[in-house]
Amino acid sequence: MADLYKEIGNDSDYGSINDNSSAQTEDPQTSAPSPSPMTRHQYIVFCGIALAYFADLTSFSLIAPFYPIEAKEKDLSPVMIGFVFSVFSLVQFLSSPIFGKLLPYVGAKFMFLAGSWVAAGSNLIFGVLDELEPGTQFLVFCLVTRCVGALGASASVTAATAIIAHTFPDRTGQMMGLLELFCGVGLMVGPALGGLLYSVGGYKLPFMVLGAADTLVVIINIFLIRSSEGMESKTKGSMLAVAKIPAVWVIALTCGVASTGMGFLDPTMSPHLKEQYNLSPVFISLVYILSGSAYAIATPLWGYLSDKKRITRTLIVFGLTGGGVCFLFLGPTPLFPQVPTDQVWTVIVTVGLGSLLLGCAIVPTFIDLLNTAKWYGLPDDISTQGIVSGVFNSFFSLGAFVGPTVGGVLQQHYGFPWASTMVGFMFVIMAILIVLFGFWEYQCGKGRRRPPNNDLTRQVSVNYFGSEIDDTEENRGLLS
Length: 480
Description:
This protein is an all-alpha fold and 480 residues long.
């Protein structure tokens, strides 16, 4: 038990533990020790997962420039078209925790490859849906195919983040930041490549090319990602155990809020730039590229700081607060009438800086969730990593669903300046909530609030993972 406290007590992000036992803790303000050099196996695993991330996100985003045109010709209303886009994230939100729970049963490698395979197949099927009859038939098959693809992507991403957490225990933040870089590049390349292929070969060509590329990546990863002993777990993980940790809900909600802000810009910023500044479609596309680039380029830095300096909560609060200020100036907010409304440079600066800071709020949340689970005594193995990955991906997807949906409603009823103001205040309120929660969790400077039983490692394993049960009054109190 002393070893557990020593390990977690090193984390400056969680402050001093003030353990009265014989355990010795290092100075909590010191940086993390330098990790050992990466092995050849680690390089191969990361390359395989990064390649899959890039292929999946490119395939996911390629429909943006041409699907609405085709769907309109198939008698789909704007609301129906929007739902075809957003249902992908909704399904991921619902399914990610389930896949996190199932991961130890089926194996991380199998779930990763099977999910990628299903996503690739759905992409190919989507390419022949233009042969269907307009109206209900086309809509239903689009929704079903999109949902199946979302299930595959959810399984793949949940397994991938768990594999990263397990393979890179000392560099999880850095690797997650680098993966977000590949995600950002894929989201930028997808629409451009989709529009190009559509102009060359029509509706089918983008799906055939990207679906085939996705399938090829799956075949390559069969040989790159190998199963190892550490990827198996005798325990199956407990969603209930994770759900009983207060910090999990606060940090997961933070991830969802930040993701909501990113999704908010997708349907709202383009009309605003056109109406307010009369920008051309090319210039508007460049603004979106700037947003994705700023987010993607900075994420490795946020991951590095999360690992090296162990300041995840500080980074999250900084990212939310800075992002909130940027969204206030993005409108700009009617609360500040002195801010000029005819200067396009303010949009460029706030979009770039805001996207950069949202990455600062999102990337550390996964590391914080992992550290919190370990602090509360959950085993540091693939079962816990799978559950945490599912929670992280679920709330990120929830934000990706809520952002465009609510953003469109707010813009329609209140206009973009007030809509962006509301989102900005949402970020600031979330940052304040984390600070207040920190005061409670750290007991106003006395150290991070301890779990309710001193024999924590044994107690959690007893009650949640099927070992011999010690049915004392104190033990029953842990479950109450």
